[in-house]
Amino acid sequence: MSEEQDEELILHAAVLHILDFRTGASVYSEQVLDLEDETVFSYVMHQMVRAVNDMQNREGTFREDSSMKRILEQYAEGELDFLPFSLQAAQTAEEVMKTYLDLPADCLVLDYEQNGKRYAGILFLEISKAFTQITEQNERTVNTILESYSVLPGFSKKIRSAAFVCLDDFSIRFLDEASKNADSSLMQEVLGCTSGKSSEEVLKTLTKITEQVAEEHEENPALMVSRVKNYLRQTTESSPSVTTEDLSSHVFSESEELKTAFEKRAEEEEIPEEVVLPKTAAVRKLKNQRIRTDTGIELTFPTEYFSSPDFIEFTNHPDGTISIELKHIGKITNR
User: Fold this and answer.
1) Which phi and psi (to 5°) does residue 133 adopt?
2) In the predicted model, is pLDDT for residue 5 greater than 50?
């Protein structure tokens, strides 16, 4: 079985189970996927990397009565091999799915490594309605159109339900956007777990409270937000997590008053002490910052430029207005 590192992920094994709760005709695979097959490997890796790095992944904690945790513990301790583990996980999920999904979803179960830690992954591949041509032979050859419900999601379609469990400490991150029942959660019921904030929600909240603290203390909100984004981007490139204490100490190093106000607001908003951001998505999302002036001008800058007066400088005037000076520009291009 091939192993290839992509986005710091090493795929060891994968299996696909077809879960059709509409007809009860589910098909459980008796063999793992052949990862030596280039098409299979490429498809599985693409879906896994994209889902693992999704900013809408939430953190969770297993409940004491979680049947999925017991299955994962048996697998982690070697009491279950990969194939029977995947079967039990898929069957547990199938019991829950019919309450939350309108259409069936295939279940892709994974064993992989990330940053030296071992993980189990479960991805629900929602079946899509599609149309295909079919040739019928009667007295004449007739080409017609057939409706199909057995099309796996393509590379452009986002995986909306997935779970990733570290088999070292049983920490959970999961995607849960496919539930038709807004009052409850597919993945929480499948896993038997609690739900925290997503990385995207945490990032939006950090941006909001940074703006609020800056405005309350008559500081430049754009500059403060850029410092937050730039610090998170730089830290995420080398570490999978950052603490709010380190963040506030860096961004508000020149003012103990601002640092204290930020930490208090972060606690009120229930920002976790340790913020986990997926590297690929976070670096892309935090690379630039867009600002809009009350005169209708929009500007987009690399976040690292905001802390360098060699590229951009903000000047506050006594009348309350702000000037923005752009420096060392060699060429301007219409976009």
Assistant:
1) -85, 150
2) no
